[in-house]
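Box 4.2: Ligand-aware structure prediction
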Amino acid sequence: MIRAQHRHLTTTLPFSDEQDFEDARRGFIAALEPGVVRDGTGRVVWDIDSYGFLSGAAPDTVNPSLWRQSQLGALQGLHEVVPGLYQVRGFDLSEITFIEGEAGVVVIDPLISVETAAAALALYREHRGNRPVTGVLYTHSHVDHFGGVRGVVDQADVDSGAVPIIAPAGFTGHAVSENVFAGTAMSRRAGYMYGASLERGPRGQVGAGLGLTTSTGTVTLIPPTIEITATGQELVVDGVRMEFQLAPGSEAPAEMHIHLPHLRALCMAENATHVLHNILTIRGALVRDPHAWSRYISEAIELFGDRTDVVFASHHWPTWGHDRAIHFLELQRDLYAYLHDQTVRMMNLGMTGSEIAEAIQMPPALENAWHARGYYGSVSHNVKAVYQRYMGWYDGNPANLWKHPPTEAGRRYVDFMGGADAVVAKAEDSFAAGDYRWVAEVLSHVVFAEPDHAAGRALLADTFEQLGYGAENGTWRCAYLSAAHELRHGSFGTPAAANAPDLYAQLTPEQWFDVIAIRVDGPRAWDLHLTIDIDLTDVSAVHRLTLNNGVLSHTARQLPTTPDLTLRLPMQLLLGLLTGHVEIDGLEAAGAELDGDRSVLAALLGVLDRTDPDFEIVTP
Ligand SMILES: [Zn+2]
């Protein structure tokens, strides 16, 4: 079944078009040999050699279109884009770019980890001379575009003003806040989306579409020293003139494009790459705005198009030649606009997200453009995201307004369908007929009704595996194969949690209090009423925390009433207390002052819930 589907793709997609391979190899200077990056303790944080299996024709267990995309992603090393402009690709999920200036080199987007960014800079220097880094640009607020910054620049050089750090307006707030509230849930689900717990290989993880996978080294952040606040703004850094276009609320909440007039080169950040990107990632996120996204690409063509001979981004390889670059941008623009406009059109015909996702047909020009295919986002889940953006989770049919949750629904479905054994027997027929989507749906009911039903679990795992082998989308494949893995071997938890001290250090006291508030166990705190003034001695600010009705509210306004307790301490100590690293009894010894009823502090800490990074996904 999956084999037939793959064969069909190989005859309909333009596999004979080798232009992408030419582009991904163009300007090659040197590769990292061996393709392994370790941290200071010797732990491997990046291993592109583990993708060495990606050669030759696609095996039956990998969608041939995804296989091709992964082969392109595995072409690593230092490349010249044009003289003076270089990229190191295949050192992380994202790519790092080097612009040579008068005295040194300006870096765009220093990857996720200090270790991979440092390795990329070292490879660059080996071949282009030991140039000092004279500036850093973050194109947007996602971690794969700033996390490795301390691998290319020292704090002291930033503090002295020698090295400017340049980012779009709102960068820091979004960089630290995007994953704060829902971080635990997103990180657990990211384990499914990127397949971090899967073996790499033809039956496992073969890439995530946007890149092969994420590095697992040290994540850092140096806040920007220069913010770009307007489209058309220009800067000269180390003799390199740059012109900026702001694109907030596109692929990231804070994002910008960079034009380099002297090189006739345009950096599109992550708004025009060699994938259909996500309107909504399957790990979960706020829905993005594809309408604005396509408008920014239009604007980039208008602003810079006639001065551009090469377009590049912080993922994948560049596109050279004025006409090809513009054609690429036009198709990317139309891709997001088409998904938006057609979804809304059909929405106004009364169709729901899942119906539109099945009905929508992409124009042939987009269908046959490799860079517009759904390796990271998919037409299917992006259409549902557009629907969600306008209409929300509810499809308007009251049958779906108040449905039973999975376990309760599962019990009833299985009961109506004659019991778990009968469902599994029927599902075997559907499996044999290749209707994997249906098998996944009915067997999920069995597993939620009877989690220990061995035959049901096994067949569901086999089903997810087939869906994974068939998926053109890298993240769908990872999700399906991760689900199969957990059904067979139990939960792998959260393989890569986001916990970088540099990021936490940028959170404001208000953000910390919000984080504490979402940990209050409501019912346990219903009857608790308390007020605490937190006097943060290092930032000279007093915040009143009030717990009432299970809600922890906070204000920096001076209130006339006396709190139950006043706590005077520096921010760092407060964080120690809130994260469980400092006990209440140890506060005074650590330099805090407590004035009033100290029992309220224990009462507050006593109703804070733990988060669960190991929660179940495919089982109850
Ligand atoms: Zn990225």
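In the box above, the bound molecule is zinc ion. The longest strand covers residues 541-548.
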